[in-house]
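Dear H.,

Thanks for agreeing to be a second pair of eyes. The structure we're designing against is below in token form, covering all 756 positions.
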């Protein structure tokens, strides 16, 4: 009994400490101090969640307090958002309703809580699955109050910070969702620090070995980075002091995920990354002097001291990014012979850079004079989201993919013929621009004049282009247009038109077919229609109707004759058609529908599945999209036939599966593999010499007895590079091969290439 009381006392102390910290964070902010409503929300939530525990074993109320603290401390929001965060799980997890919240806390808080509650099925619920439809609901409410999505991102951040208490399969699912959607959403809303942490946490759970390797590399090189930074910073600080600026200067180290991503994309090693940190100067602007002029004065001070790299200047002050990020970036050669990026921004720019649209919301609440101007980009983005939401989309995942298109895109700035500026994602085409102006202009677009020169619809735009759209009433969207549009708005409008057109054609084809049967006095029942579907080699009646409407198939003159054909002929046609369909290229998610004998596979989803060599191809298969080999970090996707698809954790297809089919994901571990061989590709570079090719092939085929499938090497100006395709049993074979090749005279870089 005493032990139970001690636990309760300990838990109450924990809760009170966390709540006191939240109040201190709020007290330090420059919001109007409304402690009463926050305290009322805390007391209500604490009582509602009383006795409930999280998976970690701590009282459930610790989660709402943590989310509210993120909302206050890291996003800078006020009492309404803090109260809503404290209450965000009450309606979903207890017997209280939105009406109860409305009666106790008012309409504003009730609407935010309702918006968050619409995202049903908590992230840690057993039945938690793809978040696509939930995100659609979230975006619908988000256009009414941006605080809904901000609190949801805070909720996801705390869930990621406490992910260690879950099973590996759940960790993969949640980390995948986070990387797929929540991190890009945080980026698009300007929440830079939160976006970086979400990426790092996702990476930590998906690639623990790589994460730990880079973490320790950063720790080991930190003293050297500090020395380089101090040598660079001290002369700059002396100059800024002389000019009378009030400022903070600090270094910002690149996030672990960003480092890994750059290594992977550029195919370089850790030591080859020159921009591991950036120097940041945050200053308080002097009164009565244009802020832009002060930024350029600091720029001039730095370039007077150090040599500038002209191709790395980024002026985000004259024209802010779409998420309202403002700063002046330049790269200079430091005194230690290393390129150093410098970011120059005011204190307000810095707050917006770190807290994004959350900071704008604060300015809006306070009635800041610049609020209308600063929230313009937010309003435009929300308007674009609303535009996409208004177009009916039958597939929640198609909608999600469409929204995601523009989350990470870099922006370009282009002009209408009258000089109006439009912001578009990089790689946007003339057709994207047409839809940005108006959907009807996009639908009837036949071409464009870019800088007064005639260009096709697929022409990729660049910043500064001036575009005039040419239209025709006879023009309408076609399937090819989807291949060269990049904006969510354009893609949604084209797909909506095509689906509407296909629906009309299906009705037309069905009408023609039914008229044909009526003339022959044939009852159009299911059996009859199935016979015609099989006769024409189609897979379903919709395909048949569509083919009739498009004149790809002729309407039968004598339908009765077709019905009298022997059943054996229909069976032959059906089998041929099934084979033709199964041979079509399909993605990993749809391969599960190809018939296979049911795998005799007992799967315990709460444990890691052991990939035994004797079960290969019988109970599990490796996917060609990423070509995993034994020893790789992998996960499994349970198919309809109970077999398991094996993907590398970093595979883009796996990311989609984690997001769409989270409940089918399981963690996997390899057992020993020494019979089957798996393909792998090695990238190799070095200084060419006589006998180099012979040395490479000798090590692979003679010394290590590895089967070499393909070798392509090119030599130019004394250097060579190329790729070697080999068949290996596991990752240990690869590491052994890389180690031996690295010792060959002249070889400077050798590594395995990820196949995606």
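And this is the sequence the design step returned. I haven't edited it by hand at all.
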């Amino acid at each position: 009994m005493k032990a139970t009381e001690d636990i309760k006392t300990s838990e109450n102390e924990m809760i009170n400490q966390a709540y006191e910290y939240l109040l201190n964070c709020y007290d330090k902010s420059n919001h109007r101090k409304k402690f009463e409503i926050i305290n009322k929300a805390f007391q209500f939530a604490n009582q509602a969640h009383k006795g409930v525990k999280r998976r970690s074993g701590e009282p459930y109320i610790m989660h709402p307090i943590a989310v509210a603290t993120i909302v206050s401390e890291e996003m800078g929001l006020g009492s309404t958002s803090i109260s809503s965060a404290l209450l965000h799980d009450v309606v979903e997890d207890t017997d209280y309703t939105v009406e109860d919240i409305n009666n106790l806390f008012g309409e504003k808080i009730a609407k935010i809580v309702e918006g968050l509650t619409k995202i049903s099925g908590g992230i840690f619920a057993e039945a938690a699955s793809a978040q696509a439809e939930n995100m659609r609901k979230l975006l619908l409410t988000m256009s009414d109050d941006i605080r809904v999505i901000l609190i949801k991102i805070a909720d996801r951040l705390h869930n990621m910070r406490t992910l260690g208490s879950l099973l590996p399969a759940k960790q993969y699912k949640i980390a995948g969702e986070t990387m797929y959607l929540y991190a890009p959403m945080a980026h698009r809303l300007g929440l830079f620090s939160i976006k970086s942490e979400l990426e790092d946490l996702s990476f930590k759970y998906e690639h623990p070995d790589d994460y730990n390797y880079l973490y320790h590399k950063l720790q080991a090189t930190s003293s050297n980075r500090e020395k380089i930074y101090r040598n660079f910073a001290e002369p700059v600080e002396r100059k800024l002091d002389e000019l009378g600026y009030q400022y903070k200067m600090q270094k910002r180290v690149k996030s672990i995920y960003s480092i890994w991503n750059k290594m992977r994309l550029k195919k370089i090693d850790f030591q080859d990354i020159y921009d591991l940190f950036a120097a940041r100067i945050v200053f308080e602007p002097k009164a009565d002097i244009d802020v832009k002029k002060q930024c350029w004065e600091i720029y001039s001070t730095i370039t007077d001291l150090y040599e500038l790299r002209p191709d790395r200047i980024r002026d985000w002050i004259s024209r802010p990014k779409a998420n309202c990020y403002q700063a002046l970036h330049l790269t200079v050669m430091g005194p230690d012979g290393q390129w150093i990026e410098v970011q120059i921004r005011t204190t307000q720019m810095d707050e917006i850079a770190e807290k994004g649209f959350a900071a704008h919301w604060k300015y809006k609440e306070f009635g800041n004079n610049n609020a209308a101007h600063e929230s313009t980009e937010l309003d435009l983005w929300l308007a674009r989201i609303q535009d996409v939401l208004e177009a009916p989309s039958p597939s929640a995942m198609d909608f999600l993919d469409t929204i995601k298109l523009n989350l990470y895109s870099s922006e370009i700035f282009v002009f209408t013929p009258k000089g109006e500026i439009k912001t578009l994602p990089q790689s946007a085409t003339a057709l994207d621009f047409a839809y940005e102006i108006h959907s009807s202009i996009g639908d009837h677009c036949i071409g464009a004049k870019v800088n007064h020169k005639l260009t096709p619809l697929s022409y990729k735009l660049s910043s500064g282009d001036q575009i005039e759209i040419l239209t025709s009433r006879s023009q309408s969207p076609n399937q090819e247009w989807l291949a060269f549009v990049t904006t969510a708005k354009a893609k949604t409008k084209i797909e909506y038109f095509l689906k509407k057109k296909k629906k009309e054609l299906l009705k037309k084809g069905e009408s023609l077919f039914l008229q044909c049967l009526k003339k022959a006095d044939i009852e159009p029942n299911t059996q009859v229609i199935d016979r015609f579907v099989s006769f024409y080699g189609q897979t379903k009646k919709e395909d048949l109707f569509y083919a009739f409407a498009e004149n790809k198939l002729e309407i039968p003159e004598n339908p009765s004759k077709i019905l009298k054909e022997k059943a054996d002929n229909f069976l032959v046609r059906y089998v041929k058609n099934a084979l033709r369909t199964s041979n079509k290229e399909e993605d990993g998610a749809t391969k599960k529908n190809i018939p296979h004998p049911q795998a005799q596979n007992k799967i315990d989803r709460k444990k890691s599945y052991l990939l035994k060599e004797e079960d290969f191809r019988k109970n599990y298969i490796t996917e060609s999209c990423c070509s995993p080999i034994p020893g790789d970090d992998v996960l499994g996707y349970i198919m309809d036939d109970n077999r398991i698809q094996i993907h590398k954790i970093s595979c883009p297809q796996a990311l989609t599966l984690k997001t769409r089919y989270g409940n089918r994901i399981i963690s996997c571990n390899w057992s020993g593999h020494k019979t089957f061989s798996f393909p792998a590709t090695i990238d190799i570079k070095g200084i060419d010499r006589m006998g180099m090719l012979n040395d490479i092939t000798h090590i692979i085929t003679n010394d290590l007895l590895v089967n070499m499938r393909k070798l392509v090497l090119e030599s130019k100006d004394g250097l060579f590079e190329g790729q070697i395709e080999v068949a290996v049993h596991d990752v240990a074979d690869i590491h052994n091969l890389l180690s031996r090749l690295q010792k060959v005279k002249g070889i400077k870089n050798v590594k395995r290439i990820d196949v995606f």
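Two observations from my side: Residues 121-131, 365-375, 566-597 have pLDDT under 50 and may be disordered. DSSP finds 30 helices and 20 strands in the chain.

Warmly,
E.
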